[in-house]
């Protein structure tokens, strides 16, 4: 028996807090009724806004309405009322089988009428007449103006779902309004047995707001006893309020006043638990279900909570457990100054505003879609796959049969791996699926903090982090810049001393907020940078240095503990079930974004819209994430595994983030997709038949050259995926699109998308080398193959043998750089890629020369090329280099540092750390049997790069390229 069905044994009905056309048309809603005992549906403007804006469910219906000349409001009503009617018809058998107890579908009156009694009454009557279904409920908010409307409408026999309840006091008023309405009917001699109502008590939002207050007080408190009292109250407010509200429910509906009505057929007004998705990732994801199970209650769950409870919920009669403890919790909250009745008024006003804003957004969305339909609704993801199309379509059919998307949303780890050790990792790495919904609840918290630091006089922000902790902020910084009045943010993800010094000199340390960003709390580069800058700030601000630092990390990491002990300005604890490369829409991406003044709510809204296009009720061929993931996976298996990214100029740095996501997720077990980011575009003839081009095109950008090149590539037979964005804010949806698509592609390749098994190898080598440096005062040397001027070429013994076999003169004092390089490049085969790994400062001059280098190698060898700066790329493509297929040629470039900087508390400097990282990665690649060489340029980096470029030219000439 389904755990959801089992709840009925305890007197609780399960409703679904979601509705959309696809859910009904696909048969998914019918399945939930039949298999999970679903007994009702609730809707609200936010649900409809996401469904209509984010999916194609309504496009056909909208076309007909537009052709009929309907207005925006008429289109809205036609779409929504039809959904409610169809859903009500599906639930009619439930309604009849339960004698009108269940089987209801709820529709909200316009949130614009929340403070208008007469307007609410008139609108509710109108909707009731239009729907013509006895098993619908009209939702009326529990505002002071809503209470008399509830009484009047119940008196007229209209079923009412009272919404936006946050306090026991207001709940009592709602229950009394319901009873008063029944009394009116009884006085007129009208029947009472067919009138139904629920009182919707909203839960998670209570805890979100109360916990925010408690956390603020915890930050300000130094008293251990006071801190313990505050910590004990975290996460208690909502469930305690709900348990005591239920006690009042029992008292009210066993009172003589109601029993008199009950004898005439009146039903109790059941309490409905709403807002039951857990917003705190450190709590159990079904806590608002498991702790509130009891008779005469309803729990309306969003799809993710429904799936979670079906999977691992624990049904029991819990609602009347620990009632006295609940009472004490509310008393304790009052003692620390948190009066829930006051908080409830704030929450209700915010709830009305949120629904009203969603309603406005919905109307804007319909208006926009109406205009696009008039001009021809464009596709936003377009495939030109040639003969690969049939293979992708077959894959989609297979995934449909496997119920892949339904299983994905249910967090089924077996989609990737069967082994228990893999499944354990995977199950703790799927939080990104519901992250946008969770983060919406924390936007205000983040933006309030951004305002706080602005008002405190901070002018700059410097983010110290690597990989998934730094790439999304870098993309957002490059795409949106800094809004006037907000912090000028820079990202430091390098141990290169010149880079560190340059950024240090660009800011006023006293007015700089340092963001220490690391999921594990142990990343060596991040912590080294932190110690360096903490010492610098302490030199300026003394004992007040910690007020310039915040941390973003997981709970209970060494950094989290250290930050609390040292007194950081703020510590943001990220959900633990999200891997670094899947964390763009978490605190790791959104806190830096808010500090720059980026509209993070809109960013999340765009992601949520795409989520609605990718849920299980959407046909597989209309699911953009499933389609893209299938294309990546299937073409990758066919040898088109070089995913070449082409982006419009304003958003081109988005490729940094996609590169890491694809490389670390897929590059393992001798497999992998190679993301090609930033490679200059060429003529079709320079590309091999291992390419899949993805063109992410931003409307109104300077796209003419890219459009023309992509058109030529398509004509030449290369497969192309075009993704069309309306504005830069659509990157919110792209973060989610690529997360899901990459996870799906990984499943098609048969790899675990959520681990990085080979990254540790380079870290271990680096650690060992640094220990050797501590002991000997120097790092071991590379095997030198040849030196020419200031440039040395190095390789391992295997490479020396290979080059000799290929006829290249291998002796430190003989031969030439070009001859040995020609021997190395001669190993390139069709399907290979060439990775340039530069442990250099990223300057305009250096980057231009490195781009010229990779382009010449690409054109000469017809292989894909990548360019990464060390040690940054170790947290991006490093996993692919060591764990992917052995189809890479690796050119490492190092140089002598012109400046150096100490790392406080360590016997080595940043220059030594960088050298150890380069050598550690070289040794890892060598041990894996990769084709790798290293060029050391000496002190004159730019001159050395020019010499190297000339050597490449000569080497290719020797090969007839």
Automatic annotation (TrEMBL):
Gene3D superfamilies, per database record: Aldolase class I, Glucose-6-phosphate isomerase like protein, domain 1
Subcellular compartments: Cytoplasm
CDD domains named among the record's database cross-references: SIS_PGI_1, Transaldolase_like
Signal peptide: none
Coiled-coil region list: none
Active site per UniProt: 139 (schiff-base intermediate with substrate)
Alphabetical UniProt keywords: Cytoplasm, Gluconeogenesis, Glycolysis, Isomerase, Pentose shunt, Schiff base, Transferase
Known EC number: 2.2.1.2
Pathway membership: Carbohydrate degradation; pentose phosphate pathway; D-glyceraldehyde 3-phosphate and beta-D-fructose 6-phosphate from D-ribose 5-phosphate and D-xylulose 5-phosphate (non-oxidative stage): step 2/3; Carbohydrate degradation; glycolysis; D-glyceraldehyde 3-phosphate and glycerone phosphate from D-glucose: step 2/4
Role summary: Transaldolase is important for the balance of metabolites in the pentose-phosphate pathway.
Protein name, entry field: Transaldolase
Taxonomic source organism: uncultured Acidobacteriota bacterium
Encoding gene per record: tal
């Amino acid at each position: 028996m389904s755990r959801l069905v089992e709840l009925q044994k305890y007197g609780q009905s399960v409703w679904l807090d979601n509705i959309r056309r696809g859910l009904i048309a696909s048969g998914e809603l019918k399945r939930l009724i039949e298999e999970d005992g679903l007994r009702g549906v609730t809707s609200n403007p936010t649900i409809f806004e996401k469904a209509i804006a984010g999916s194609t469910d309504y496009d056909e219906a909208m076309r007909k309405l537009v052709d009929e000349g309907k207005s925006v409001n008429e289109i809205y009503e036609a779409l929504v009322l039809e959904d409610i009617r169809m859903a009500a018809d599906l639930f009619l058998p439930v309604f009849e089988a339960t004698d009108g107890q269940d089987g209801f579908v709820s529709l909200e009156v316009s949130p614009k009428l929340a403070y208008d009694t007469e307007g609410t009454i008139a609108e509710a009557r109108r909707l009731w007449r239009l729907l013509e279904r006895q098993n619908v409920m009209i939702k009326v908010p529990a505002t002071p103006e809503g209470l008399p409307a509830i009484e009047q409408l119940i008196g007229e026999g209209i079923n009412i779902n009272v919404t936006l309840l946050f306090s026991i006091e207001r709940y009592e008023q709602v229950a009394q309004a319901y009873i008063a309405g029944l009394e009116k009917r009884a006085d007129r001699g009208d029947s009472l047995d067919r009138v139904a109502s629920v009182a919707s008590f909203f839960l998670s939002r209570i805890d979100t707001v109360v916990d925010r207050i408690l956390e603020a007080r915890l930050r300000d408190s130094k008293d251990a006893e006071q801190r313990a009292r505050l910590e004990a109250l975290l996460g208690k407010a909502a469930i305690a309020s709900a348990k005591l509200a239920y006690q009042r429910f029992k008292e009210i509906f066993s009172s003589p006043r109601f029993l008199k009505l009950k004898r005439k057929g009146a039903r109790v007004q059941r309490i409905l638990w709403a807002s039951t998705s857990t917003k705190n990732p450190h709590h159990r994801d079904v806590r608002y279900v498991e702790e509130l199970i009891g008779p005469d209650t309803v729990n309306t769950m969003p799809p993710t909570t429904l799936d979670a409870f079906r999977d691992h919920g624990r049904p029991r009669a819990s609602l009347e457990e620990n009632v006295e403890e609940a009472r004490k919790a509310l008393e304790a909250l009052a003692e620390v100054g948190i009066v829930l009745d006051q908080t409830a008024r704030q929450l209700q006003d915010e709830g009305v505003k949120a629904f009203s804003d969603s309603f406005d957004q919905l109307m804007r969305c319909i208006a926009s879609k109406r205009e696009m339909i008039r001009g021809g609704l464009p596709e936003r993801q377009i495939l030109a796959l040639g003969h690969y199309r049939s293979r992708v379509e077959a894959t989609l059919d297979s995934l449909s049969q496997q119920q892949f998307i339904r299983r994905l949303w249910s967090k089924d780890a077996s989609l990737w791996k069967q082994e228990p050790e893999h499944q354990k990792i995977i199950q703790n790495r799927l939080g990104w699926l519901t992250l946008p919904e969770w983060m919406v609840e924390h936007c205000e918290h983040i933006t309030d903090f951004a305002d706080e630091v602005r008002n405190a006089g901070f002018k700059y922000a410097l983010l110290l982090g690597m990989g998934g902790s730094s790439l999304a902020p870098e993309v957002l910084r490059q795409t949106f810049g800094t809004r006037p009045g907000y912090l000028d943010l820079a990202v430091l993800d390098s141990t290169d001393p010149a880079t560190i010094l340059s950024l240090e000199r660009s800011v006023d340390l006293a007015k700089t907020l340092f963001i220490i960003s690391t999921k594990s709390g142990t990343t060596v580069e991040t912590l080294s940078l932190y110690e360096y800058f903490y010492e610098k700030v302490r030199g300026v601000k003394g004992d007040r240095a910690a007020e310039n630092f915040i941390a973003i990390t997981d709970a209970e990491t060494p950094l989290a503990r250290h930050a609390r002990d040292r007194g950081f300005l703020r510590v943001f604890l990220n959900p633990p079930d999200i891997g670094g490369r899947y964390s763009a829409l978490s605190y790791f991406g959104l806190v830096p974004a808010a500090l720059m003044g980026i509209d993070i709510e809109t960013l999340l809204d765009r992601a949520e819209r795409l989520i609605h296009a990718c849920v299980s009720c959407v046909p597989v061929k209309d699911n953009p994430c499933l389609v893209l993931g299938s294309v990546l996976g299937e073409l990758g298996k066919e040898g088109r595994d070089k995913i070449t990214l082409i982006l419009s100029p304003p958003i081109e740095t988005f490729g940094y983030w996609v590169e890491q996501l694809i490389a670390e997720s897929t590059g393992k077990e001798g497999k992998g997709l190679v993301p090609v980011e930033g490679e200059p575009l060429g003529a079709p003839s320079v590309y091999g038949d291992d390419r899949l081009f993805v063109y992410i095109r931003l409307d109104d950008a300077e796209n003419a050259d890219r459009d023309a090149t992509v058109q030529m590539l398509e004509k030449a037979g290369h497969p192309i995926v075009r993704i069309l964005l309306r504005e830069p804010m659509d990157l919110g949806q792209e973060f989610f699109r690529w997360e899901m698509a990459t996870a799906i592609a990984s499943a098609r390749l048969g790899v675990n998308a959520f681990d990085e098994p080979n990254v540790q190898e380079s870290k271990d080598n680096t650690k060992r080398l640094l220990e050797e440096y501590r002991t000997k005062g120097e790092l071991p040397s590379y095997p030198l193959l040849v030196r020419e001027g200031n440039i040395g070429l190095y390789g391992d013994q295997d490479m020396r043998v290979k080059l000799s076999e290929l006829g290249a003169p291998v002796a430190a004092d003989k031969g030439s750089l070009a001859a040995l390089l020609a021997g190395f490049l001669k190993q390139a085969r069709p399907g290979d890629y060439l990775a340039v790994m530069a442990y250099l400062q990223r300057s305009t001059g250096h980057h231009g020369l490195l781009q010229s280098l990779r382009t010449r190698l690409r054109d000469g060898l017809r292989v894909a090329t990548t360019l990464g700066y060390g040690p940054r790329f170790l947290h991006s493509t490093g996993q692919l280099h060591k764990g992917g297929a052995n189809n890479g040629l690796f050119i490492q470039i190092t140089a002598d540092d012109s400046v150096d900087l100490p790392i406080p508390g360590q016997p080595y400097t940043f220059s030594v750390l960088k050298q150890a990282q380069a050598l550690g990665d070289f040794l890892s690649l060598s041990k894996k049997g990769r084709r790798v060489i290293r060029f050391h340029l000496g002190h004159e980096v730019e001159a050395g790069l020019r010499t190297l470029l000339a050597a490449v030219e000569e080497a290719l000439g020797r090969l007839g390229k």
